[in-house]
Amino acid sequence: MVKQRVFTAFVIAIVLAWIFKQVHLGEVDYFQKFLVLLLGFSALEWAKLSHVSHQFTRGLYAVINILILYFCVSYFQLIDMTDQSVLLVTHFFEISVSIWAIFLLWVITYPKSTLVWRSTFVRLIMGIVTMVSFYLGLFFLVNIEHGIYLISYLICLVAISDTGAFFVGRS
Questions:
Q1: Nearest-angstrom CA–CA distance, 39 and 134
Q2: ω into residue 111 within 30 of 0, thus cis?
Q3: DSSP assignment of the chain
Q4: Which of 24, 34, 95, 97 has its CA 20 to 30 A from that of 103?
């Protein structure tokens, strides 16, 4: 198990280092394409965790997530980063954080709250809100000055926390 985790971490580190180098050289497209690919895989996993059994339905859910992200990036004009797009995306994030707070409340009040999110449909909607707002945030960060360093910090923080939790859980 440890060998597999180390190998996976090594491969991810190489891919991310190459993508970050491209972003540093001004090629943001590679990172954005990587994010879209990552969103697709994340949506497949979310659908699986939401008990969607058919492979076609999982794939359709991933495509819907990608299309919603594409619509949001186009609507908020995150590629051009005008003042209006920053204002629009800020309002979107305010709404997203409010919805995430509701999701957190549901987690805190578990198992009573399972009546609300027992439905597969509700869990899939939760996934769309959670993943699209997260990936939209990454799109936003990569387009601001020094944003790639913030993303690097976030990735390192999550990797270190995950590694620590793995080894603490083993002992």
A1: 10
A2: yes
A3: -HHHHHHHHHHHHHHHHHHHHHHHTT-HHHHHHHHHHHHHHHHHHHHHHTT---HHHHHHHHHHHHHHHHHHHHHHTTTT--HHHHHHHHHHHHHHHHHHHHHHHHHHTTTTTHHHH-SHHHHHHHHHHHHHHHHHHHHHHHTSTTHHHHHHHHHHHHHHHHHHHHHHHH-
A4: 34
Q: How far apart are CA 170 and CA 14, in angstroms?
A: 27
Q: Which two tokens stand for residue 107?
A: 């987690």
Per-residue confidence (pLDDT) for residue 117, from 0 to 100: 84
Structure tokens, 5: 């985790």
Reading the block at residue 59, the tokens are: 């794939």
Return the number of other C-beta atoms located less than 10 Å from residue 136's C-beta. 22
106: tokens are 């549901």
pLDDT beneath 70, residues of the chain: 1, 78-80
Distance (Å, whole) CA 2 – CA 26:
36
In the block, which residue shows the tokens 């090629």? 27
